[in-house]
Amino acid sequence: MPSHDRVIQRTTPVEQRVEALQAALDARGMNATAGAEELDHLAQEEWIPKNGARVVAKAWVDPAFRARLLANGRAAVAELGLTLPKHHRHLVVLENSTTVQNVICCTLCSCTAFTIIGLPPDWYKDLEYRSRVVRESRTVLREMGLDLPLEVEIRVWDTTADTRYMVLPTQPPETIGWPEHKLAEIVTRDSMIGVARL
Ligand SMILES: [Fe+2]
């Protein structure tokens, strides 16, 4: 390749490069543009923490559902019409308590149960979070605004390709008796990753 071509490639904005790639794939009948639009729709509208928030709210008000959720997350979320990709074979739900705080990470890359708790935030993918939350979880949580008393045990769970996690936060006592839809509104993505309490 002549050297001036390489210079042009390096300085072309990423959007133009993506468009060029999509056009090249589309021209070969591979429907890249339609595929990208579908992924964009899924990421913006379908794979959102609101799904997990519904699960948490139901678990708070329905003890039988909560038991099913803790026994088999994948089967329980299906009761709410929520699904995971086939390769997410297990959804393990980790129940917090006043004395236990569960935290999830993916030390290898960025895996989450994204159809349930949403796509991972940028900091979750950072090498700093992935490495430090394992070795010095209490300090990392404190830096993220969650200063836990020493008597709270912190359990860190490393996601794999086929086992995905979500944290079941404890219900704030002042919300006992609220209707399920209102409870779902207070559940955040960070509380289902375990770096925040509600
Ligand atoms: Fe990963």
Provide an overview of this structure.
- This protein is α/β, with parallel strands linked by helices.
- The protein is 51% helix and 12% strand.
- The protein contains twelve helices and four strands; from the N terminus they run ααααααββααααββαα.
- The chain has helices at 3-11, 14-27, 32-46, 49-61, 63-71, 73-78, 114-117, 122-125, 127-135, 137-143, 180-184, 189-193; strands at residues 90-95, 100-105, 153-158, 163-168.
- The strands form two sheets. It has a two-stranded parallel ribbon with strand order 1-4.
- Helix 9 packs across helix 10.
- It is globular, with a radius of gyration of 20 Å.
- The mean pLDDT is 94.
- It binds fe (ii) ion.
- Fe (ii) ion is lined by residues 106, 108-111, 159.
Tally the helices.
12
Q: What does the main sheet amount to?
A: 2 strands, parallel
Low-pLDDT parts are none
**Strand arrangement across the biggest beta sheet:** 1-4
What's the pLDDT, averaged over the residues? Answer: 94
Task: Supply database-style keywords.
about 200 residues, alpha/beta, 12 helices, globular, binds fe (ii) ion, two-stranded parallel ribbon, 4 strands, two-stranded parallel sheet
